[in-house]
């Protein structure tokens, strides 16, 4: 199988992009990308064509999520170009964009996930005779 080249660019307005990319067998470590910086890596698709890479992204106070950035299927390979195998991703304030090689334009592939924080309170005193347990759920934007 041919080499695949993955590039991730920080196109956020002002924030550092933290990311950690992995596959089933490889952990590429954590990286902090200042604005306009990029991270790239190269690999060969396995014999069975089941190679999958995903990245955990974080930026600002509450933005981020885990997203697949390479899988061996025609829809992605078409965008990455069958010939050059360059997969280019751009993190922007409204989501993660893929550079569609054949169309030579950016496509919003993923919107940032809303991050939720859960707090569990056990044994809250309701009155002198009763205690309660409760969840506080915060949706962060």
Automatic annotation (TrEMBL):
It holds the Pfam family Self-incomp_S1. GO terms for biological process: rejection of self pollen. The keyword DNA damage does not apply. GO terms for cellular component: extracellular region. Keywords: Secreted, Self-incompatibility, Signal. The keyword Secreted applies. It comes from the Eukaryota. Coiled coil: none annotated. It is found in: Secreted. InterPro entries: Self-incomp_S1 (IPR010264). Belongs to the plant self-incompatibility (S1) protein family. PANTHER family: PTHR31232, S-PROTEIN HOMOLOG (PTHR31232:SF146). This is S-protein homolog. The gene is LOC105120299.
């Amino acid at each position: 199988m041919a080499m695949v080249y993955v590039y991730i660019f920080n196109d956020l307005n002002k924030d550092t992009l933290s990311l950690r990319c992995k596959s089933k067998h490889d952990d590429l470590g954590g990286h902090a990308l200042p604005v306009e910086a990029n991270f790239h890596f190269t690999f060969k698709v396995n014999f069975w064509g089941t190679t999958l890479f995903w990245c955990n992204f974080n930026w600002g106070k509450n933005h981020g999520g885990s997203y697949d950035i390479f899988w061996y299927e025609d829809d992605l390979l078409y965008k990455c170009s069958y010939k050059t195998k360059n997969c280019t991703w751009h993190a922007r304030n409204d989501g993660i964009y893929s550079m569609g090689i054949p169309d030579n334009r950016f496509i919003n592939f993923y919107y940032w996930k809303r991050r939720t924080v859960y707090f569990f309170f056990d044994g809250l005193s309701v009155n002198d005779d009763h205690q309660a347990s409760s969840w506080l759920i915060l949706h962060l934007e």
